[in-house]
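question for whoever is on the cluster today: can someone run the full assembly for these? two chains, 309 residues total. i dont have access anymore since they changed the login thing
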Amino acid sequence: MLVEDKKRTAHKAVVTRVLEGDGRASRVARRAAFDNAGLTEPLRTLIDKVARQPTRVTNEDVAAVKASGESEDQIFELVVCAAIGQATRQYETALEALAEAMTGEKRSEHASEDSQ
Amino acid sequence: MRLKILNSGYGFGTKVLFAFIHMVSRHPVPDAAKLVFYRPDFYGAPMKEFTHLAMRGPSAWSVGDRELMAAFVSKINACAFCIAAHTATAARAYQDEAKVSAVLSDLETASIEEPLRAMLRLLGKLTRAHAVSADDMRALLAAGVSREQIEDALAVCLAFNTTDRLADAFGFFVPGPKAFEAGAKFLLRRGYR
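^ ran it for u. tokens below:
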């Protein structure tokens, strides 16, 4: 339990750092990339590919975002946020499913422990 | 890599370190390492901490099991760099190359323990469909995988669903097998920190 807490804490630290810490891209843009929502072209295409089909990212996708005025450091940050965002959504969905399966199985026994 | 900063945007100290690594390992620093050395305060340092805990922290899954999970998740994501890196590392950790290639070519027929197979099946679904249900989890628990083991494997899955995306988005160069062998040795000796 203690080690698991360490892993969850370490994951939260990654998310907090990229979304709330200092960066070259605005916090609003980093959050939008993390959520893969509310972006405009050409950034939308790049970020959606990072989240949903990363093997489809092309040099042209990156070049188009650069041409729209984003610096390489901003692109670096936004792509990182998009990757962490998608992986985090998977992780959280799976942990919720696990918690549901545990409460269903053990009922009241461990209910308080499971529902943090 | 697609961003010039990830090829050449490093300070003097890091460049010296890269040269040293190149000299000692006789291979250029792999792109996965370059990524975590770029402005490490933003991504590399906190991510290394998390990945090391997931891959090398205490767990009922062996290091070989976790490297196999990394390779398997990367296979689902079709991420060439990470498949090669973690296939080599898992094979070396298990001292069993055949086991790793059997799992990667057909999970259902590979000769492995059932709890590991059930766990990999779930990681595959989560990676492919981005979601799993409580019923999927019940099946996994019924197959003899503990709650802690599931949480540990989900952390591995999170690390590699992040890294795979970055490898393909930034366009990591995929070197030959010898470089991945050297990488595997390094990852087993030093971990991810």
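summary bc i know u wont read the tokens: Chain A is about 75% helix and 0% strand. The CA atoms of residues 18 and 80 of chain A lie 8 Å apart.
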